[in-house]
TrEMBL record:
Any one cellular-component term (Gene Ontology): plasma membrane
Record's protein name: Amino acid transporter
Keyword match Cell membrane: yes
Keywords: Cell membrane, Membrane, Transmembrane, Transmembrane helix
Lineage, broadest ranks: Bacteria, Bacillati, Actinomycetota, Actinomycetes, Micrococcales
Length: 481
């Protein structure tokens, strides 16, 4: 494994770019950590514990390892092709198949919608905890709050809120503070003799699949907590010396979040029995705060920190999804009306409405299905879509080894992309999901069918108008146009 400075203009070691390189290692690290932290661990700790019992730390550790292996592939690709664009860029360079590039791009967009929908339901749950509301008798209040929240996110998106570096620093600090609060409360509880760490080695599973498959089912769910690192590759053109900076920063960011997740899951199980943690009466981490520091008002404050964390995740994901849809319309891959921009706000309003409508449908379908665990189902669907994308990206690394770019770059050990592709493909399969999680496949399938239908419609229209297919003229820029 090696990496070296790119030979570029005037010996700067940086490729020519139209964007301003403003992000150094510290700001990039905050971006990576802030993008990974959020809805996953805040909302899914109880669901992961429900799959494996006290050994809830094991799935988070497994998800961290798979994410890190895949990160090595992203590091080789982003230092080899330091351009914004992400998975769509890499897949198109490797295979050159427009339809495959489209599917990967649309899957990434759908993962943003399902992630934001997960955050909307988690937001409703934290609001219930913070205001101490009794919503145990049905899903209607949760549905109304979640839909109202997504409407607010759409309004902010329409207004044109961007992701400034300063805002990301503030949001990351707030998200991080909530998780560090959990860890510190755990340490405090240990000094008071309130923690029972014997529970963290107890494996309990409601299924009869056995330890291995129960852990893999929980890992496929916990993987949702680790996604986000791949978004940082879109900052390549705005990072100083990306070839040297990205490897150190991305691996450090993954390491920090991995340690935090494992410590949080251990603390949760040590302070609250698994049966209570998964009861659903209040969010798992809110129960942990209340149990670890019963004499302090942290349990009143924590739900609002959780609301802030998941709200940030929802906004970031819906911004990404709407802009990605807009970019695909601009490239004539999807119907042109989806690329319309509002005259005064200068935002892709049709794409915003379309992605918001899909999120409304997802939230309504899952919440009104009384047998569904809303956050688990939608979060798991996000992980499913991205695991499929990561499988293809890991393969793309090996295919692109034949492309000599004429300069040194980060080189992942050959075994890692192979292991990464196998692990991601395995975790995407039905054998890596419990019976309750099988509902993720119809959701993901319907979303992709919507994309394929739009693609076919565009192909027919373009052929009728131009007499040929005229789409994806510049697929490398789908994810940031």
């Amino acid at each position: 494994m090696s990496h070296a400075t790119t030979t570029g203009e005037k010996g700067t070691g940086e490729e020519r770019t139209e964007l301003k390189r403003v992000m150094g290692p510290r700001l990039l690290l905050l971006f990576v950590v802030g993008d990974i932290l959020g809805t996953g661990v805040y909302a899914l700790t109880g669901d992961v514990a429900a799959e494996v019992g006290g050994a809830a730390w094991a799935p988070f550790l497994g998800a961290f390892l798979v994410a890190t292996i895949t990160a090595f592939s992203y590091l080789e690709l982003v230092t080899k092709y330091p351009q914004a664009g992400g998975a769509a860029t890499f897949v198109h360079k490797a295979f050159g198949i427009h339809f495959l590039t489209f599917i990967v791009c649309f899957a990434v967009m759908c993962s943003g919608i399902t992630s934001a929908s997960t955050a909307a339901n988690a937001f409703a749950g934290f609001l219930r905890d913070g205001l101490q509301l009794d919503w145990a008798d049905g899903g209607t209040p949760l549905l109304l709050v979640a839909l109202g929240f997504m409407t607010l996110v759409a309004a902010i998106n329409f207004r044109g809120v961007g992701e400034s570096v300063k805002a990301n620093v503030v949001l990351t600090c707030v998200e991080l503070s909530g998780l560090l609060l959990i860890i510190f409360i755990g340490l405090y509880a240990v000094t008071q003799g309130q923690a029972d760490f014997s529970r963290v080695i107890v494996f309990e599973s409601p299924s009869d699949k056995g330890v291995f498959f129960a852990v893999t089912a929980a890992t496929s769910l916990a993987f949702f907590a680790m996604v986000g690192f791949e978004d940082s590759v879109n900052m390549a053109e705005e990072t100083k010396d990306p070839v040297n900076t990205f490897p150190k920063v991305m691996l450090t960011g993954l390491g920090i979040t991995g340690v935090i997740y494992v410590l949080v899951s251990i603390t949760a199980v040590a302070l609250v029995p698994v049966g209570e943690l998964t009861s659903g009466e209040s969010s798992a981490l809110t129960q942990v705060v209340a149990a670890g520091a019963p004499d302090l008002p942290f349990d009143k404050i924590f739900p609002f920190i959780g609301m802030f964390a998941v709200a940030n995740s929802a906004l970031i994901n819906m911004l990404m999804a709407s802009r990605l849809l807009y970019g695909m319309a601009r490239q004539e891959v999807l119907p042109l009306p989806l690329g319309k921009v509002h005259r005064t706000r200068q935002t892709p309003w049709v794409a915003i409405l379309f992605t918001t409508a899909i999120s409304f449908g997802l939230i309504s379908y899952v919440v009104l299905d009384s047998e569904s665990d809303v956050v688990s189902l939608l979060g798991g669907t996000t992980a499913l879509l991205l695991l499929c994308v990561f499988t293809i990206v890991n393969i793309a690394v090996l295919v692109l080894r034949r492309d000599d770019v004429g300069r040194k770059h980060f080189h992942a050990p050959t075994a890692l992309p192979i292991v990464g592709a196998i692990c991601c493909a395995f975790l995407a399969g039905p054998w890596a999901r419990s019976e309750e999680q099988q509902g993720q496949y119809p959701i993901a399938g319907v979303l992709l069918l919507i994309g394929v239908a739009l693609w076919v419609l565009t192909w027919i229209v373009n052929r009728a108008i131009y007499g040929k297919r005229t789409f994806m003229r510049d697929p490398e820029h789908l994810e940031h146009d």
